[in-house]
Amino acid sequence: MAILFLEKTPGFTLRKKRELKKWIKDAVASENRICGDITFVFESDEKVYRVNVEYLGHDWYTDVISFDYQTGEEVGGDIIISVDRVRENALKYDVAFELELRRVMIHGVLHLAGYDDGTEEERRNMMRLEDKYLDLWRKKEEKKDGKV
Q1: Distance between CA 57 and CA 51 in Å, rounded?
Q2: How far is CA 122 from the centre of its chain?
Q3: CA angle 60-63-69, nearest 5°?
Q4: Cα–Cα 20 to 30 A to 117, which of 4, 58, 65, 79?
Q5: DSSP H or E run through 47
Q6: pLDDT digits 0-9 by tens, 68-106
């Protein structure tokens, strides 16, 4: 089982990789699943758009695409993230880039864990889970920094 981060966007460097891996493993375990191999690929908007068109037949830009390669209880696959789109959304929603990036990362993991966001009810459920795991991240960071 491995979680890999491939930084393919010039000028982008993912911070706190060790902490992110633990957070993702904890989130998967919290969903009563087994963490398999997950690869995060951080790409440009254009690259993610081309993947969306070529592999999914979707002619639009998106912030994250998940490709699930596992069966059974194991969670694993590739999660492709548009760093450009995350930056844009962080500005749009007036949140820190790092927070929006973690939201998109956990969103991709939730897709690999079997959650969908095709209906309004599914979207609300995924947002609730995203908030739950972002809160878990925040609490761990506060504890590490001695604020709790």
Answers
A1: 9
A2: 17
A3: 95
A4: 4
A5: helix 45-56
A6: 998 788 999 999 999 999 999 999 999 999 999 999 999
* Distance (Å, whole) CA 100 – CA 117: 18
Name beta bridge partners: 5.
40
Tokens of 112: 């690999």
Cβ proximity of 9 and 42 under 8 Å: yes
CATH class of 3-144: alpha beta
Domain residue spans of the chain: 3-144
88 phi and psi, to 5 degrees? -60, -45
> By the 8 A CB rule, do 103 and 93 touch?
no
Amino acid identity, position 34 = I
CA distances from 7 to 23, 59, 116, 124 (A): 19, 24, 26, 30
